[in-house]
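Journal club prep — side note

Before the paper discussion, L.F. wants everyone to see what a predicted structure for a comparable chain looks like in token form. Sequence:
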Amino acid sequence: MTAAPTSILVVALRRLGDVLLTTPLIRSLTRAYPNAAVDVLVFEGTQGILAGNPDIANVITMPERPGTGETVALLRKLWRSYDLAISTQSGDRPTFYAWAAAKRSAGFVEGEGVLARLKRVALTTSVDIIADTHRVREVLRLAEALGVAPVAELVAPRGAVSSGAAPTRPYAVIHAAPMYRYKRWTDEGWRALAAALVARGLAVVATGGPGDRQELDAIWAARPDVKRLDGALSWPELAALIRGASAYVGPDTSVTHLAAATGTPTVALYGPTDPRLWGPWPTGGLDPVWDAAGTIQTRGNVWLVQNPLPCLPCQGEGCLKHRDSHSQCLDELSVGQVLRAVDAALSNPAGRRSA
């Protein structure tokens, strides 16, 4: 019988939202091995989404494009330092780091080529990629392959909002700026939504990253009643702000996944992305899974809004197939439809769960 590991490394070299979606695997491991210290290897700039996570001992960061010296230094640090290492991706680099970090390793393998066969030999436990699987369920297949009971629970960053950041009266949070243009709703839509929320007696707080300032200036300059906190909050502070809100509204972005994880009534505006694979994960779990397309779908504390054109979801980067493209499905999404979902979320506080 294999001894229970006391040190585990989880390799998650992707963007912020995907790192957050890896936390159910980490929670599964800590529940199965309560005496183990779990470290996580991530790209620099994504570690904040794990801040305050009680399941994690240490977060190790690396550049997205490291030089030779940085790679060698990281390998020296990792080499056989763990009892178990797990790659949450099938790529060559994360698989290599997992193999190097521990004699016992696990990870995804995709395809049947030479590299895929080498990975199956190198990894102690290899798991084939299954198409059309939600990312949370996908990473939990790694737990199952290791004989660990899956815990389908996202863990949001923990912290407190700085004094004066949150309104003293009931408020809604709007996050209007995803990383890529093809996931954006219209400026006019966001302004009309803010006006409707104010008319419903709510204060409105707008969030965003420090690099979103120019875009958010264009959206919110005409709405001085919107309290702007873009670039002002850490990830734990942002999670705490959203956790205290009456509702959150945002597009397909890491902050929307975070909002769903906090238990706050979350309205998610989705365009080209397939929610069956990347839809928000409610705090009570996702059962049944999201449909590929619909007008307003509800699961737990999440209301998912789409404009179901015949091409939805295309799983492409907008109508022009690049990240700066527009998306017709979002350009034509009506304020009225979004408001119907918001009103449903506001009228159903029972959908909120602690997280």
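L.F.'s comment for the group: The longest strand covers residues 102-109. Keep this in mind when we get to the figures.
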